[in-house]
C-alpha cells in the first residue's frame, strides 16, 4: 500500500528525505495533483507538499512575491489582483487537458516551468523565478537567489530547479518577480488562413513595434489566427487600427476586446480546443515557428492529428491515437529533422511507462544530466524515472 507523507515544515521535509536517502527508499513527489506528466514513478511512499502553504512575502512596491510550494496558484493570483499585478508568464492549467481535479500550486508551476501564450513576449516561469529554497536528495536545504531582484547568488540552481519535475530537490519556498496587470487587452482574429499563411501573419505582427503578447492559430472550418496586445485602452485601440491595416493582405481582422479576449487566451493557454478523447494522446512539440506548419501537416497526414499552434507556430500541440507507441516514432522522427523536441503530455499509464515521455537526450547532454542528478540526489530517491 502506498503511504502519503505530508510534512508541514522544512525541518520535517529534511528528515523525511534524509531517511529516504539513507534507506534508498524512493519518494514520489506530489503537489496539487494537476500535472501527472512523465513516466510513472515506482515508489511505495508519496511525499506531498500540500501542507506547506502560505504566502511568506509580498512586496507590491518591489514587485516580488514568495510562497511555500503547496500554496494554491489561485490564492497567489487573488492576492496579486488586489494590487493589479500578475505572474507575467501566464502559467498553463493542465486540468482541462489531463482531466485532473486538484488545485494547481506554485510549487507545481515551478517544477514544470509552466508558461502560456505570453511566453513569446515575457518568457517562461524560470525567467521570473529569482529565489528558491529546496531540500535536495541528500536531505539538505539549499537556498539560491534572493527576495530582491539585485540578489543573483546561486542563479544557476534557480534555473536548474525550474522544470526539473521534482528530480533534483523538493522546494520549500519560491520567490518570483512580478509585472503590473495590463489595463485591458485586444485580440485581432483573422479567419480562413492556412497554417503556413498564419505563421507568416504572426511573424509579420511580431516584427512590428506593437508588443504582441500572444500569437496562435487553430485550424478548423474556418481556421482562426489570433494576435493579442495589452496595455492602456487608448494604446490598444491605436495598435488595433494600425495592425489591422498592416495585416490587410492576410484578410480582414476582427477586434475582440476585454473579457472576451481574455476568454480566448485562457482557452488557448489551457489547450481546451484539443480536449482529448479517451482514445487520444496529446503531444507538445517545440520547434522553430517556421517549421511548425510542416510538422503539423506531417502529423495530420500520418496520425490524423488535431492541432493547435501557439507561440507564433513554435509550439505545436497535436493529438494522436492512444494505441501502439502513441505516435512516438512518427512524432520524434519528424521533430528530429528540424532539431526540435517533443513531450508526451497526455497518455494512458501503460503507454507512458513504455515510451520515453520527454525528448531523449543526446549522449553529451545525458552525461551532464547524470552528473547533475548525482550531485543533488546521489541515492536517486526523488521521483526516480520520471523524466528518463
UniProtKB/TrEMBL annotation:
Keywords noted in UniProt: FAD, Flavoprotein
Residue ranges of domain FAD-binding PCMH-type in the record: 1-181
Entries under Pfam families matching the protein: FAD_binding_4 (PF01565)
Coiled-coil portions: none
NCBIfam families from the UniProt entry: PRK11282.1
Protein name as it appears in the record: Glycolate oxidase FAD binding subunit
Organism this protein belongs to: Kaistia dalseonensis
